[in-house]
């Protein structure tokens, strides 16, 4: 393909398993996919059109980067997005459950009683009270307006579910029930196109430049060949975390070196490394989140919504062994204590109907399916009588609205009694790096002294501190949208 050719925005499932050599084949397959929520084509800007100067450079074309670019554009700036991978989306495409937000119009329409303070306190508790409180307050207090902001650009998150560690349904999902990451990546990219914001892929930023103690631009390698210096008054780093860097995982958490990762291939800590060279400070680098429900080969996240909509976890004996919607660290530890350090997510046709993301799992061959519970037990090699007993007990607890075994209180609106029945084998995997560069609520990158690096901003998984020692499901999407938008706004204020 020639540079500048219009690429189809791949479906999330195809994007995540494609190698660079197989992109063309995946694109053809994606054209036939019904997973894509919005019919959108991504016209990436040809590398030859990269100018020598912009108002602001955004490094990374995931959800945070595209949000930053759109916010900056709305404020009158001329931004450019540089993405090292062949396609936009990054780790955002991996997100499947939803976006947490409180005091929203969607909650009110659905009769959900919620408050920013409740959202704050539950996130703080989930993070083991190690969260950066200022960042957390900002995220919570601006979550409802972020839902409205997305809505204004045609991205409607008007369905609700619940994630582990939360007490009410504040996880906002796309109207059609599809995976939130694919939906938002498509919608953000469509808006980037409509606003004519240049987005150049295969553009690997290797250095952030400075002049007179102020950020002055970047050095970028285009198409693994030509190096170019691009000037700008401000730079926003949205390169994601380091969950796909085996070297960094081994450095900070050697105990996790053999775990599979759900991260996109581009999540190798590039932004953290570049910011450190400028004197930027990092925090919580050892805090790496293990997601409890990961299909292992190939590594693929089985989203929280599957449990949030009523699914349960059973071990090889066919028994439940934990509150499935406890925080991710606790559920992961519970799974690791089981025989084989694995479990099964078990659900029925009702859960499948309420969570469109399950269609992806089924198409990829991750699910075992049977018309009866006994037949499902045979397929996953667990005792049929015990699995039947587990489901019977669970259904009785759902009716009573009381989990007599593990005290689960959420995701209990529906019994598991609609055939066919499904099971997906899962085990924990590396999912998210809570550590990263230190920023303030204006998303300014800070030195250890607390002084901001002039003209440098960061948002998304590249930053540290917000999530404390454990991230709540649904908060990463809130993070990238809210702080991506803030970075664009603050860069605009700085440039002007």
What does this molecule look like?
The chain is an alpha+beta fold. Helix content is 33%, strand content 21%. It is built from 17 helices and 21 strands. Strands 3, 4, 8, 9, 10, 11, 20 and 21 form an 8-stranded mixed beta sheet that branches. Strands 13, 14, 15, 16, 17 and 18 form a 6-stranded antiparallel beta sheet that branches. It is elongated, with a radius of gyration of 22 Å. 57% of the residues are buried. Residues 1-41 have low confidence and may be disordered.
Q: What portion of the residues fall into strands of 2 or more residues?
A: 15-25%
Q: Which class of secondary structure composition applies to the elements?
A: alpha+beta
- Rounded mean pLDDT score: 91
Shape: elongated
Termini, distance in Å? 39 Å
Uncertain runs? 1-41
Largest pleated sheet: 8 strands, mixed
- In angstroms, what is the radius of gyration? 22 Å
Helical proportion? Answer: 25-40%
Task: Give me the count of strands.
Answer: 21
* Count of helical stretches: 17
List keywords for this structure.
17 helices; about 20% strand; about 500 residues; 8-stranded mixed sheet; alpha+beta; 6-stranded antiparallel sheet; single chain
